[in-house]
Amino acid sequence: MKAKNWKIDISKILIIIVLFFLIIMPVLRMLMYIGKLDNFDFLYSKQFSTSLGNSLLVSAVACLIAVCLAFCEAWVVLRSNVKFKGLISTLLITPMLIPSISNSTGLIILLGKNGIINNLFNLDIHIYGFWGVVIGSVLYATPVAYLLFYNILKYENYAPYEAAKILGIPKIHQLRSITLPYLKKSLISIIFATFTIIFTDYGIPLAIGGKFVTLPVLMYQEVIGQLNFAKGSLIGVVLLIPAVIAFVIDRFVDGSSNTFNAKKYIIKKNRKRDIFAKVFLGIILCSILMIHVSFVVLAFAKNYPVDMSFTLANFEKTFSVGGIKYFMNSVKVAVSVALFGIVFNFITAYFTSRLSSKLSSFIHAILIASLAVPGIVLGIAYVLFFKGSIIYGSMIILVMANYVHFSASPYLMMYNTLGKVNENLENVGATLGISRIRMIKDVILPQVSGTLFEMASYLFINSMITISAVSFLSTVNTKQFSLLINQFESLMLIECSAVISLMLLLVNVLVKGIVSFVRNKVLSEEMVKVN
Questions:
Q1: Quick check: bond before 305 cis, omega within 30?
Q2: End-to-end Cα separation, the chain, in angstroms
Q3: 428: region left, alpha or beta (phi > 0 left; psi from -120 to 50 alpha)
Q4: Does this chain's domain 55-256+269-311 share its CATH topology with 312-356+389-531?
Q5: What is d(CA 127, CA 110) in angstroms, rounded to the nearest whole number?
C-alpha cells in the first residue's frame, strides 16, 4: 500500500509541474515584464482612461441586458408549455458556436451602411460604435448566461410554489419571494461571469467598435501593432481584475440552492403565458437566425450589395489565400486539444476527486485558478514566457494555450461526475484482487463516458472558434481559420468573412450533433448491459 501511495504522490507531483509550466509560470512572467515600463504614466494617459471607461460602460450595459434576457429565456423555456424545448435551447446557444467577431460581422451585414435591413427598408441605422458593441456583446454573452440560469432553474423545488398557490399568493409576489431569493447567490456569480466575458473580449469591439476603443482592443493594438509588450502586460493585469473577482465569488459564494428531495416543477395550463412565451422566443430566435442567415446570403452573393446573384467565387477566394490550410490547422489544434483534454482532465479529476490529499487540493486549486485568466491575457503571457523556445510558433503552443484557456470547465464536469461514482469501488476491487487500472477501465470509465463526450465537444468547439490567445501566438504557417475573419474585414472582403463564419458554424453544429448522437448511443448500450 505504501508503494502504491508513493507512486500516486509522484504522479500528482508530475501533474503539478506540468500545470506550473502551463499556467502559473507564464502569468508570473507577464507580471514581471511590467517592470520593463520606464514609468506608469501610461495608467494616467487619456488613451488608457478612455479605453478603460469605454470597457466598463459597455460591459455594464451589455451585462445588464444579457443577464435579464437570459433569465427571461430560461424562464419561458422551463416554465411554459412551448413545444420543441430541446431544439429551442440548441438554437438559443448557437451564437456560442461561432467566434465573437462573427456576431459583429452578422450585425454589419444586416445593419451596416450597406446592410440588408438598411437597404431593404431604406433605413439609416448606424451600427458602429458604442451600441454596436453592446448589441454584439449581448448576442455573444447571453447564451452563456442562459445556460447558467437554465441549469439552476431546471432543478428548482416546486414545493414552495405549491404552498404559495394554496395560500393565494399572486405570481408576481412568488417571483419576488421565492424565485429571486432562490437565485440570489447564483445570480451574483452569473453577473460577474457575464461581465468578465464582455470586459475581456476584443473581437466584437475590434470589428464593430470603430473609434470606440475598449481596453482589450488597446492591448491588441499595443502588442500586435507596436510590439509594446510592457504596456500590453500592464493592460493584461487590469483585465485580470474582474476575472479574479468573478473567480473568488464563484469559489467562495455557495450558489447551490438545490435540495436532494426537490419536487419537480409542475407546469400548469396557462394560455396567456404560453402565448407570451411563444412570441418572446419567436422574436429572440428570429434575431439569432437572421445573423446566421446573413452569412448564407453574403457567402453566396457575387458582389454585395450591387450584385446578389448566386456564386461560389467567395469560397474560391477564401481557399485561394490558404483557407483550406488554415481550416485544417484549426481542426488539428481542436482535435489535439480535445484528445489531450479528455485524457489529462480525467487523470487530474480522478486524483483530486477520488484520491484526496494536500497535493490533490493543490492541483484542484491551480486548475480552478485558470478560470481567472482571460484568453487575451493568456496569449501575451505565453508570448513572453515561451518566446525563443523550440515550441514558440508551433502548433504545440497553440494546443497548450487553448487547453489552458478552456480546461477548467471540462475539468469541473469530470470532477463532479467522478464525485458521484460509488467511492468504495476501488476498495472493493482491491479486496477482490482487481487492480486500480482495471477498475477504472471496466467500471468507472463506462459510468463517466457521457461526460467524456461532453468534454470533447466543449474543447473542440471552443478551440475552433477562439481568436483571443491564438491571435498572439499564430504564425503564417500555424494561423487559425477564425483569425481570417478580421483579416478579410480589414481588406473589405466581408463576403469571405461570412464564408468563414458559416463554415465554423456548420462544422461546430455537425460536431455537436455527432457527439450527442454517439454519446446517447453509448449510454443506451451501457443501460442495456446494466439491465
A1: yes
A2: 35
A3: alpha
A4: yes
A5: 9
Vertex 100 angle, CA 97 and 106, to 5°: 90
Look up cell 500590453; give the residue: 232
C-alpha cell at 114: 450597406
Alpha helices per DSSP H over 311-394: 313-320, 323-354, 358-369, 375-386
Report yes or no: 500 and 326 within 8 Å, Cβ to Cβ.
Answer: no
354 contacts 223 by C-beta, under 8 angstroms: no
pLDDT for residue 37: 64
Output the nine-digit C-alpha cell for 275. Answer: 402565448
Distance CA 437, CA 207 (A): 50
Tens of pLDDT, residues 290-337: 999 989 888 898 877 777 788 888 899 888 888 899 999 999 999 999
Q: What top-level class would CATH report for the domain 312-356+389-531?
A: mainly alpha
Using only C-alpha atoms, what is the Rg of the chain?
A: 24
Question: What's the pLDDT at 234?
Answer: 85
What pLDDT, on the 0 to 100 scale, is given for residue 62? 96
CA angle 326, 215, 485 (to 5 degrees): 20
CA distances from 122 to 28, 54, 104, 113, 497 (A): 54, 31, 21, 11, 25
Can you tell me whether residue 418 is helix, strand or coil?
Answer: helix
**Residue 434 phi/psi, 5° resolution?**
-95, 130
Distance CA 433, CA 228 (A): 61
Mean pLDDT (the chain) is: 85
Beta bridge partners of 102: none
User: Rounded to the nearest 10 degrees, what angle do helices 46-78 and 85-92 cross at?
Assistant: 180
133: pLDDT strictly greater than 90:
yes
Q: Residue 7: which region, alpha, beta or left (left: phi > 0; alpha: psi -120 to 50)? A: alpha
pTM of the entire structure? 0.86
**What is the residue extent of each domain of the chain?**
55-256+269-311, 312-356+389-531
The span from the CA of 205 to the CA of 417, in Å, is: 38
In this predicted model, what pLDDT tens digit does every residue of 361-390 receive, in sequence order?
888 888 888 877 888 889 999 998 999 899
CATH of region 55-256+269-311 = 1.10.3720.10
Which cell numbers in the block locate residue 292? 446566421
Q: What 3-state class would DSSP assign to 80? A: coil
